[in-house]
# Entry
Amino acid sequence: MRNVTKKIISLLVAAALCLSIVPFAVAADNSRIILRGDVNGDGSVNASDALMVLRKSVGYNDAGFNANRADLDNNGKVNASDALRVLQISVGSDDPTTYSKNEVIKFYADALDAVAYSEISVYYETRYKSKMVNDEDSTDYVEFDIKDDMTDDFSNGYDEAKYSIYSFCPSTRIDPSLVKAAKITKVNGGYQVDITLVEDQAYFDDYVPHKTYPYLLSYADCSESGLDGYYATDGTASFPGSQIRATVVDGCIEKIELTIPFEMHMTLYHDDYGAFQVTENGKIVDVYTFTTK
# Structure
């Protein structure tokens, strides 16, 4: 059993490295986004923006109108309720803590977009913490904690390698049907956004949660580690409810914490030791801190 335990440890470390989050390619809106509700792009939110939204809702198409910033409740339509929300923002009476689920998602997207095209530095920390148990002998287990960090600078939405900021951070384009719950609460000097995604499942051929992907970013293929002669022949991974937590100040994201709890059931095989089942429970936590230059 000692020899098997050592090999499980080796396999576990390999799996942890495989599960480290890696960039994926997404299309980015290259227009410079300024403020939530600023549909005419003049750098402020005022009655003229509300009027443009109202005109759009009845069929007028004014020059310079940014439709991407008009649908404030994220329901796919531009109507009078959006115009009212813009007017409330302009006079300071808008209260994000009363937002519906769709509005919370839109608020988060706008707050991240607001900093995405600035001159910013993003400090990224990731932590992979889990426990793997040999199902044939529950006393045979290993726990580990892997940490890593890096900093990347972005200008006008891209870093020096021409990667979009949205290949580095959780996507803003979240399908409301994939959100279990969303809320905004007041914190010191700003707001805290909490978005909980629906449960998802993946299989051993890639262990990617496709339903909520790319909101959780991308995972490398962990179906075959090849380490010490062990490889996976079957397995599933479940994600009971990943969470995005963001701090928003003055309409801009300052910090995002992405928490991904998971449970993996795998059948491992070795030519000498045969097949056995293992269960791994844990979570991945990614933290992004944004600093404007």
User: Anything to note?
Assistant: Helices lie at 2-18, 47-57, 80-91, 101-116.
